[in-house]
Amino acid sequence: MQLKIGEIVEGKVSGITKFGAFVDLGENTSGMVHISEVARTYVNDINEHVKLNDTVKVKVLNIGEDGKISLSIKRALDPEPRTERPRRESRRAPRTDFSKPSDSFGFSSRKSEPASFEEMLSRFKQTSDDKFSDLKRKNPEVRRSKRGAKE
C-alpha cells in the first residue's frame, strides 16, 4: 500500500500515549496522530476521544524521509458547516448623499479628478475643523490645545 500525502485512509488505533495515538494502517505500516490533530476542540486527555483498537479515518499529513507518517483525525472529518455571525449594527449615520463617492475625510474617490497634495491637505483640514466644531458643540468641555502650550 503506497500512501500519498492528503489521502484519507482507515486504520486501527494500536497504541495511545499522552502526546498522541499510533494507528496501524495495515501492511506493516503505522503512523502517529498528534494530540493536537485528534479533535477540533482542545484535547486534554486523548483517552476521552480514542480507545485502543478503535477504527478511525485519518488523513496523511506528512511522510518523513525517515519513514515516519504524520496523521490527523480532525482533518479527515467532514468540514464543519460555517455559521454566520450576526452582524453588528453600524454606529455611523447612514449616508444620504450618493451622488459622489467619498471616504470619511470627504475626499473624492474618483480617479478622473487629480488633486494636488495642497488641495487634499486643505480639504482634510477643513473637514477636521468641521468635525471638531461639531464635537465641541455636542460636548462643550472639549478644548483644543496647542502642543507645548501650558494650560
Protein architecture, described:
By secondary structure, the protein is α+β, with helices and mostly antiparallel strands. It has two domains: 8-76, Beta Barrel (OB fold (Dihydrolipoamide Acetyltransferase, E2P)), CATH 2.40.50.140; 100-144, no CATH class. The chain has one helix at 117-138; strands at 8-17, 20-26, 29-34, 55-63, 69-72. A five-stranded mixed beta barrel has the order 1-2-3-5-4. The longest helix is centred in the C-terminal third of the chain and has 22 residues, at 117-138. The radius of gyration is 31 Å and the shape is elongated. The mean pLDDT is 80.
At CATH level 2, the architecture of the largest domain is Beta Barrel
Q: Roughly what percent helix?
A: 10-25%
- CATH class descriptor of the largest domain: Mainly Beta
How many structural domains?
2
The secondary structure category is alpha+beta
Protein topology:
Elements (H helix, E strand, L loop, with lengths): L7 E10 L2 E7 L2 E6 L20 E9 L5 E4 L44 H22 L13
Parallel strand pairs: 3-5
Antiparallel strand pairs: 1-2, 1-4, 2-3, 4-5
Task: Give me some keywords for this one.
single chain; 151 residues; alpha+beta; OB fold (Dihydrolipoamide Acetyltransferase, E2P); 5-stranded mixed beta barrel; 5 strands
